[in-house]
Amino acid sequence: MATTHSLSKVLPVAPSRVFVHLTLIGYLLLALLPILLVFMNSFKSRDAIFDDPLAWPTAETFSLIGYTKVLGRSDVLMYFGNSFIVTMASLFFILLFGSMAAWGLSEYRFRGNRWLKFFFAFGIMVPIRLGTVSILQLMVELNLVNTLTALVLVYVAQGLPLAIMILSEFMGQVPSELKDAARCDGIDEFRIFFQVVVPLIRPAIATVAVFTMVPIWNDLWFPLILAPSDKTQTITLGIQQFVGQYATDWNAVLASLSLAIVPVVTLYALFSRQLIRGITAGAVK
């Protein structure tokens, strides 16, 4: 036992594992450094930002003027509220309709089943922005321009294909014995779906939630086109008010970006355990 334990310490690490870990660490630094720079410079004065953007805030350079400007404007809080409403409403409908459609495609066999799956896969490959002109014309005809409803409808249509494809694969792994036993007990299909299937695919639901939440929260394209009014602007669009043609209030911009990152990081932290379980479950499938 002692010899085996000592040999395990002497055995060298495979070069491939070292390369993989170094690559992952490099990617982690590449992803986190810009976020760290935004946070660091949001607590510095304007002169300190341009003098040395890579330096940490000190007693001489520390300043909260950016946060004072941002939080002092009541419309910025409204922009945060609009983003939160649009993101949560879109996630709710994407997860609800996506899981129900995935249940239908994975559980029931009918003519056109494969064509429907191909149709949703095609929706993942084609960017929804290609139909911006048609979407804008439709929203004008429905009188939904400058409403949060227009954004929710677009984001639901954007997120459904990916949600259906991911959830249908996970639902196919649910043991049929569980569903058959529930049917033998007289449980209807809706209760089987919500009480048996949905609890078993929570990791997949968390994965879909994270993958669809971040693009919705960060999107600037559709808020700029469909909801540019002052009362319907999202936070990504509202930040643009601090960016001028000839001068930019970098303190306010960096403070706004820092505040906008917090909800996404918080929601990711809440879903992270389920997200990792969902990714690893898909890896060993």
Give the topology, please.
Elements: H1 2-10, H2 15-42, H3 46-51, H4 65-71, H5 74-107, H6 113-125, H7 132-141, H8 148-171, H9 176-184, H10 189-200, H11 202-218, H12 221-226, H13 235-238, H14 250-283
Structural class: mainly alpha
- Strand content of the residues, in percent? under 5%
- Name given to the CATH architecture of the domain at 80-227 and 275-283: Orthogonal Bundle
Order of secondary-structure elements: HHHHHHHHHHHHHH
CATH superfamily heading of the domain at 80-227 and 275-283: MetI-like
What's the helix count?
14
Into which percent range does the helicity of residues fall? over 70%
Number of strands: 0
Runs in which pLDDT lies below 50 for 5 or more consecutive residues are none
Distance between the termini: 35 Å
The name of the CATH topology of the domain at 80-227 and 275-283 is MetI-like fold
Chain-averaged pLDDT: 83
Which term fits the overall shape?
A: globular
Précis, in short:
The chain is an all-alpha fold and 285 residues long.
Provide structural commentary.
The protein has a domain at 80-227 and 275-283: MetI-like (MetI-like fold), CATH 1.10.3720.10. The protein contains 14 helices and no strands. Helix content is 75%, strand content 0%. The protein has helices at 2-10, 15-42, 46-51, 65-71, 74-107, 113-125, 132-141, 148-171, 176-184, 189-200, 202-218, 221-226, 235-238, 250-283. The two termini are 35 Å apart.
